[in-house]
Amino acid sequence: MASAILDDSSSAFTYGGGAWTVSSLIQWYNGSSTYAAFAFTAGAGTLSVSFQGTSIAFFGNTPPVFNDSQVLIVSIDGGTPYNTTYSDPNPQSYRQWYQTPTLTDGQHTVLLSHVLGTALDYAVVTVGKDTPLGTNRIIVDNEDPSITYKGSWSRSIEEFDAGSLPDGFPYHNSTQRSSTPGDMFTFQFSGTSATLYGIMDWNRTGTLSAAYTLDNATTPQIYTISKSSPEYLNDDGQQSNFLFYSFDSIPAGNHTLVVNITACVNQTFIFDYLTYTPSFSSLATMPNLTTQTSSSSSTTSSPSTHLPIGGIVGGVLGGLALLFSVVATILVLRRNRSKKRKVDALPADAGK
Questions:
Q1: Which of residues 82, 116, 131 is at a domain's end?
Q2: What letter does residue 30 receive in the DSSP assignment?
Q3: C-alpha neighbours within 13 Å on the C-beta side of residue 110
Q4: pLDDT values of the chain reduced to their tens digit, one per residue, 352 residues
Q5: Which regions span the lipid bilayer (predicted)?
Q6: Which of 114, 131, 148 is at the close of a domain?
Q7: How far is CA 299 from each of CA 206, 253, 295, 296, 303, rounded to the nearest angstrom?
Q8: Are residues 108 and 195 in the same domain?
Q9: pTM
Q10: Which one of 39, 72, 75, 309 has the lowest number of neighbouring Cβ atoms within 10 Å?
C-alpha cells in the first residue's frame, strides 16, 4: 500500500464559503497552510477535493473551541451528509483531523462543510494498485518497512512543542530519533526526486550534521542553532515538516538513499517521513526493489550450508564409542600377549 501527498495549494482543492487565508510559516509542509479565518466571525467555510484512490486523510490545525466549531459535516460522492468531529481532546492542535472510510478504487469527491477556522496543511491519498499516480508525490512514513535502520534509533510518539503555534503530532504520530554519530538508514526507490522531513528543535542551541548519499554520491549538511538564530528568537519551538534535504531532478530509475548521522551536539536527529516523485505510473508497475536486492545478494554471496546439529552430535558420540572399543580391544590383546610371554619363559619342570 502506498500514499500520495497533496499540498494545500494543489488544484485538487476548492475552498468556499468565503475568502480563505494562506499562512506562510516554516512549520507547514511546503511552507503554506490554508484556513478559514473568516469563519470566526462570518459563517462556516467549505472545502472540497477530487482525487483518485481508496481514501483521503486531512492534516493541519484543528479549530479552537467556540460554539460548535468541533463539528464537521461530510459528504462523499454526493451522498447524504453526516456529522463527525475532529477527535481532538485538546483543541487546537496539529494532527490528522479527518479520514474517509475505505472506498472503491476510483475517482471520488469529498465535500467538507461547517468548517470553522480549521486549517489544511496537506492531504494524503491512499492509492489502489491501478490508481494513476500522474505527477503526485509518494509519501513514506518513518515506520515503513522499506526503510532499513542501523544503529541505536528509537521510536518516539511524543507530541511536538510548536512554540507560539498549537502543539501537535508528526505524520502517523511517530518519529525515529538518534543522537549517535554513525547511525544510519537506507531507502530504495524508483523516481526522479526525493525529500526528507523531520522535526527540528529550535529551543536547543547546538549542532546537528548528516551525510546524504544518493547512489554513492555524498552531500554533507550541517544545521546550527544559536541564540541569534531567527527561529530561536521567534520561539518556533520544535518545527514540524522540517526539510532536512532534497534531491531534485535526478535521472528516472532505481536509486539507493543512505542517511548517515555525523554529529549531534545538544541535538537529536528526528526523522518523520520522506516523499519522492515516482518514475512508475501505478503500484502495478512499481519495481520490487527489495526482491531485486535480495536476488542480487544471493548471487554474489557464497551459499550457506545449514548443518543438522542432531546428526553432528550423534556422529561424534558414535565415533567416540568406536574409538573406546578399539582401545579396549588393543589393551586386551596386549594383556594376552604378555601372559603368553611369561608362560613361554618358564622352565619345563617348573610345574612339577
A1: 131
A2: G
A3: 25
A4: 799 999 999 999 999 999 999 999 999 999 999 999 999 888 899 999 999 999 999 999 999 999 899 999 999 999 999 999 999 999 999 999 999 999 999 999 999 999 999 999 999 999 999 999 999 999 999 999 999 999 999 999 999 999 999 999 999 999 999 999 999 999 999 999 999 999 999 999 999 999 999 999 999 999 999 999 999 999 999 999 999 999 999 999 999 999 999 999 999 999 999 999 999 999 999 998 875 544 443 333 333 333 344 443 344 445 444 444 544 444 444 444 444 333 343 333 333 3
A5: 307-333
A6: 131
A7: 45, 22, 6, 5, 9
A8: no
A9: 0.82
A10: 309
Per the structure, how many domains does the chain have? 2
d(CA 300, CA 296): 6
Both 50 and 127 in a single domain? yes
Whether the Cβ atoms of residue 35 and residue 20 lie closer than 8 Å to each other? yes
Range of the domain at 36: 1-131
What the block records as the C-alpha cell of 326 is 578399539
Same domain, 60 and 171: no
> Nine-digit cell at 160?
511536538
Q: Is 17 left (phi over 0), alpha (psi -120 to 50) or beta?
A: left
Q: Is 280 exposed, middle or buried (0-12, 13-18, 19+ CB in 10 A)?
A: middle
